[in-house]
Each structure stands twice: as structure tokens, then as C-alpha cells.
Amino acid sequence: MRALIVDDNRVDLALDRAEPVPAPGEVLVRVLVAGICETDLQLIRGYKGFRGVLGHEFVGIATTGRFAGQRVVGEINCSCWTCDTCRAGRPGHCPSRTVLGILGHDGAFAEYIAVPDRNLHRVPDKVDTDVAVFAEPLAAAFQIPAQLPIARTDRIVVLGDGRLGNLCAQVLARESDHVTVAGKHPSKLALLERLGISTRVVNASGLEAGFSNQSQEGADIVVDCTGSAAGLATALELVRPRGTIVLKTTIAGEQTLSLAPVVVDEITIIGSRCGPFDLALEALAAGRIDARTLIHDRFDLTDGVRALQRAAEPGVLKVLIDVGADAG
Amino acid sequence: MRALIVDDNRVDLALDRAEPVPAPGEVLVRVLVAGICETDLQLIRGYKGFRGVLGHEFVGIATTGRFAGQRVVGEINCSCWTCDTCRAGRPGHCPSRTVLGILGHDGAFAEYIAVPDRNLHRVPDKVDTDVAVFAEPLAAAFQIPAQLPIARTDRIVVLGDGRLGNLCAQVLARESDHVTVAGKHPSKLALLERLGISTRVVNASGLEAGFSNQSQEGADIVVDCTGSAAGLATALELVRPRGTIVLKTTIAGEQTLSLAPVVVDEITIIGSRCGPFDLALEALAAGRIDARTLIHDRFDLTDGVRALQRAAEPGVLKVLIDVGADAG
């Protein structure tokens, strides 16, 4: 089968990759469409030393299992379900987990992917395949309200106007009336403005004067979706005393910063990763999230290397990879 | 009056310092006993650039106000009570606050200190003055259960066996049955063992093998009282996925560390500072906290410089400064 393979800091299209052999409990899924995420670009640059088929955002047709013949999306953590962590209700943190297209498990930029049956969710009929492919990143955005209570009066700043920042802002704007996105790209911010979410342009020298003064105190919650080492320091400047910073993006390598303000101002910092697929699919089915305007380009799997290059260009939001036809 | 004055990275005894003049709302308190804290030692080394009378842990006799003639302890943050932050219920974070002996306000290593009347708490008759002087650091320890819910089954590790680590461990051991203190000083750890709190010796090369395996998963809560830049990195190694790290000590300067584990393991980091005096005094009155065994030495105010040197020696817990007699 055709597949995009990452190895030794480069990615190539293979034409004769063997189809994955499902392990016990796994289902072979025929991929229809896949989405490119910032993590994919980091993996190509060597993050986590991953080798194999890239890709973890996908919609496909299950060939067997509970949803045989139906459109499915899949949670990415493949857990053992027997260790202390899994039994404590934290399977996403299973120490022996593999992760689709990220850690020890081939991914979705291929004609077929093997996925644990219990990881699959059926795509509601009314959700188009191009929209359903956002289930995984949108679930990650829904993890924020799952982790911390949000009030309608909370002043929230989302740092970063990229793929994840956009989805986080849309999710949070349903919980609070005071969401502002701070980003570098006027065209990306315009998408959010059109959805009624307020935005601010930041430049290389930082935030414009007065930005932190949403109130005298600063923001109740700052969500860092910058993917930049500077994100946390900026968040610490913007958050009010006893406020909360949500770290949404992993930064490879070490960072240098002063943590004294965390103690003096009694800040809470919460790391946030994967989230609830059911809420994401429900929101997409109800049309409460605008995913379609995030699609900036699409390529056939055969042009997958170009697709990845395109996704790395500044100003580009979601790039899709068309893999197979939905023949039903 | 006599007073210990910090200025230009040194501390000296003044014999003729003018008595403080209480501002509106302030009360003149005649100091009986004061305690030396790690922050005092940092202030002498230049932290925050403080100049003036040092000291923020004290018991005294109020000369006027609500508690005139009675023994009092005092909260250290002097707030404006009119700004957004104060009106939002966070006076301890008032941006224009002064802090007794720390920021813009003379402290308690002197015969008299001026304190806002509303900051004062009467010392219950049954609490000895030497014990009441622990109200301020003990309140800081009580801030931890005030910030996060703690279950009896929570596995808690306190990093650091110093003054604050000891008090935090004692407070947390009343909430959970699984508190362990990791420290470098066998004599300090022995005090905790005698109170029924389990301990582990750590050395320069880190924690002993197997320490993190309280369970397969790691600790639910790690409290960093090390006062060291390495504390957070150690805490990240010990905490379980979705666990909580409480940062209890400020570290001057910048630190370098990798924050990716915070996101991947969805860790919560909470900064924690001053706490509820009422709970601290109640616990001291009920004899639920052993403060007395922490008193390692005491000096008259006239020997205050020696007292500060003594408090900086390794292995020394609380050093008290005797200022005035409790003539009533």
C-alpha cells in the first residue's frame, strides 16, 4: 500500500508498504482522509525519534469490529488496560501505551491503519468526512473545559492563532463571553473575528501596549497554543494572580524562565493533551464548531510530501490528505 | 529602639532606630519574640532589593486597636482593600501591597512594628508565645489544603526537610495517611519520624533507588519545599500522570528545565504562598502541630546578627529572636 514514512529526520512516500496486521483487539481501518498536525511536523524533525507511518488525525471505514463498514475516527492512545494507571482511569497515560503515528504504532497517512476497536467512534451521518477529520484536535480542545471549570465571566486569552489555537478558542467561546485570541497572522485572526471571537495582533516585539489590561488584574485563564518556548513567559505576564495557565503544546528541549512569579502570584499551570472524542463529534454534528474554514489545502496521498511542506508554511491552517474514496 | 536593618546586602543592629509611626488603620505592636525564615536570609542576599527592618514572623502586644494589651500575631500582606484585586477577594495579591519586613514596610526584628489592625489575630491564651510565633509559616502550610482537595488515600511526597517542609508535612499528614518527606538531613528527618511521618534520605546524587515507586504510578501530590532550583525537576520525576506539584518556595533567578512532561503527563503545578492564620492558630491551640521541637536556638535581639548567621547553618531549623518581656 502507499504510505508516508518518517525515518531519520525525513519523510518519503512508500508505494509498497505492507498493510498493517491488526493485533488482538485491533481493527483494520481503510483511511479516507487524514489531517496534518503540528506534531507531525515536529516528528519529521526528530521529536521522540519516531520511525514508521506518520499521521494520527483520520477518518476511515472500519473493515471489521463493532463498526464494520461504517465511517470511524479513532482515539490515538493504545493502552494496556491492565496496569495501575489504566485501572485508575487514566488509560491515556498508560506507561506502556503506543500512540498512533507518534509512538511505536504506524499511523494514518497510509491506505490502511490498525486501530484498537475500543478506540473507535462512529462518525454521525450528518458529519461530512472533511469535518469529521477534526475530531481528534477538537477533542484536545474540549479537554480544557474537561480539566477546569470555566465561567461565562472568565476573561480568557488564547495565545496562538494556529490550528489548535483556533479550535481551542471556538470551544472556549462557547463557555465564556470574554475570549480573546492573540496571534501573529491577520488572515488567521480574521477567521476567528468572523465567528465573533475578539482578536489581537502580536508582533515579534511582543504584545501591543495595553493588551494585558483586559482588566486591571489580567486574564483569569491563559491558554498557550503558541508551540513556542516563549509562550509560558508571555502567559505569566498576562495571567492575573491566582489565575490559570493551560499548556496545550509540547515544546521539545529545555526552556529557561523564572518560576518565582508562579509562587508569588499563586498561579496554576495545567498541562493538557488529548480529550473527549464524544464531545467533539457531538459539537461537529450540531454545527457548533466551524472546522471547514480551517481547511487551507488538500493533496492526494501520492503528493503527501508536498502536503507536509505546505502545512509547514506560515499562515497555513489545516492541510488534508485524501487517501481513499468513500465507496461505502 | 533596637532593630535589625538590612541594607546593601548586609544586616546590622541599629541601637537608635526611630520607632515606626503607625499609618491610618495601623497599630503599634510591641514585639515579644520573632522567628527567622528562609526569606529573611534571601532578603539579606539581595532578594527583592529590600531595605529596612527585617522580620515577618512575630508575636507582640498590641498597644492600641481591637486587641490593645493582648498578644497578637499578624498577617504580612498590607493591602489597599480598594483595587480590583482586593475587591475580587484576593487582598494578598494586591498590586500596591506592602509586605511586613519584605516589601516597602519595616518588619519585626525590632522593639516595635506597625501593623494594620485588620491584619492582627489574637493569640489564644493556651498558646505559648514561642509556639504562636509559628503562626505565619504554619498558615503558609495550611494554604496547601486550602488550594487543593486532599484525600486520605493520596500519596504525598514533601521535598525538603527544612522549616517549611516540616510544617507542610505535619499539616498534610493530618489530611492523608501516605505522606513521605524526602530530605538531606537525618537529624531533621528524625523529628518527623518521631511524629509518625515516614521519611527518605536523599543525597547529592538524587533520590535513592526505588523511591519514586511508592506505587507503580508515582505520587499523587509532590510539594516542593527545597528552596532549590532542582526541586521542580525532581518533583516532575516523582509525580504521577495528572498529579499535582505544589511550589512552596520562591527561587530567585531563572531556571532551565523541560516542560514537555507537564503537557504529556497533564501535570498541574500550583504556586502557593501565604495562608489562613485562623486555621494555624486553631491547630496550635489544639496541640495538633508540634512546633516546639523545631526551635533549635534563640538569641536576644542585641545578638540578632549572630541569630541570622545561626539560622543559615545547615541542619538548623527555627531560630528565635527574643525582643521584649511579656509584662502584659
Offer a concise description of the structure.
The structure is a homodimer of 328-residue chains. Chain A is 23% helix and 29% strand.
Q: What are the main properties of this structure?
A:
homodimer; 328 residues; alpha/beta; 7-stranded mixed sheet; 6-stranded parallel sheet; 10 helices; 20 strands; 29% strand
Describe this structure in words.
- 2 copies of one chain form a homodimer.
- With 328 residues, chain A is α/β, with parallel strands linked by helices.
- Helix content of chain A is 23%, strand content 29%.
- The first copy, chain A, has helices spanning 38-44, 84-87, 129-132, 135-147, 163-172, 186-194, 231-238, 260-264, 277-285, 304-311; strands at 3-7, 10-14, 26-35, 52-53, 57-62, 71-74, 77-78, 98-100, 104-105, 112-116, 120-122, 155-159, 178-183, 198-201, 219-224, 239-247, 255-257, 268-271, 295-300, 318-322.
- In chain A, helix 4 packs across helix 9.
- The longest helix of chain A is centred in the middle third of the chain and has 13 residues, at 135-147.
- The model of chain A has no long low-confidence stretch (mean pLDDT 93).
- How confident overall, as mean pLDDT of chain A? 93
- Most extensive interface: pair and counts? A-B, 42 and 42 residues
Q: What profile does the largest beta sheet of chain A have?
A: 7 strands, mixed
Span from first to last CA of chain A?
20 Å
Order of helices and strands of chain A: EEEHEEEEHEEEEHHEHEHEEHEEHEHEHE
- Structural class of chain A, please? alpha/beta
- DSSP strand content of chain A: 25-35%
Tally of strands of chain A: 20
Oligomer: homodimer
Low-confidence stretches of chain A: none
C-alpha geometry of chain A: globular
- In helices, the fraction of residues of chain A equals 10-25%
Number of helices, counting only DSSP H or I runs of 4 residues or more of chain A: 10
Rg of Cα set of chain A: 20 Å
